[in-house]
Amino acid sequence: MSNNYTLTKDELVRTITDQLQEVEILTAMFPEEGGLVWTDPSILIDAEEYRDSEGCSPNCIQCLAFELNLNTEVNNQTNLVFKLSIKLPKDYPLSRPELSVISDQMSREELINIKKALNEFVLTLPNDEHILLEIILWLKDNIGSYYNGDKTSQQAESSKANTEGNTDILTSMWLYMHHIYSKHKRKDILNWSHDFGLTGFSLPGKPGLVYIEGQSKNVEEFFDRLKSLPWKSIQCRSKEDIEKRIFTDFKEMSFDPHGSRDYHMDFGLFYKFLVDHGLGHMFKEIFGIEGQIKDEK
């Protein structure tokens, strides 16, 4: 939805200032813990510093990206819990915000339909005004009409069928992200891997990496759900059918984290981990360089 307007430094300072003021209003409206959650808290810190220094520091800032945890009552009985992910282009409100809706209670088709309707609604709003509150109120008022009942029991039956029948193909997938910093994203990765019965691991930091293995359709649904979150970049670097799983559970891994915010891992140790699990050949395919194990002497 972005038109990519070019802004001068002064215009960008004013735009970021206005965006921060709008976010402050939303924070006041959703004061409960977990109401408004920053995808990466450092984005807010950098934006505030940029505003306060009138564009002198830092030299580069990222787009504001955050999530709102919301709920609404459907048919006077069901409490529908959902998450609205928002990414503001630097030239917002001249450009439209990037939006996605996530709910564990809704099916994939329902989420696709509500997102389509939401995007159509956004197009009816002025493109030079701050519109986040209107978007939130519209979503709370209308999401219920796209909801046809809690899918928890359906997922349980599907999971049981997969476990008992084991007729689906096993698939592995390697996902590569520019970075994985957010504690909330890291928690989502762990929770969703368990929801879909996947095994493997995640590697937070810069770059970020997720390896998953499990029933093919569950792997695909996990990837679809993960893509709905705001990322600087996310790619599927490899996908293949496998005969059996390598891992027995899903864990977040750490290999001697270092750097200013412990966002860099020791890739020599990571390569050894891959070799120990018969995956050493994937290092070059994922990162484009040969892996090396450190001399422990």
UniProtKB/TrEMBL annotation:
PANTHER family assigned to the protein according to its UniProt record, in alphabetical order: RWD DOMAIN CONTAINING PROTEIN 2, RWD DOMAIN-CONTAINING PROTEIN 2B-RELATED
Pfam families: Prp3_C (PF06544), RWD (PF05773)
SMART domains xref list: RWD
InterPro entries per record: Phi-like (IPR017359), Prp3_C (IPR010541), RWD_dom (IPR006575), RWDD2A-B_C (IPR059181), UBQ-conjugating_enzyme/RWD (IPR016135)
Protein name (database record): RWD domain-containing protein
Domain of life: Eukaryota
Domain RWD: 21-146
Cross-referenced PROSITE patterns: RWD
Regions annotated as coiled coil: none
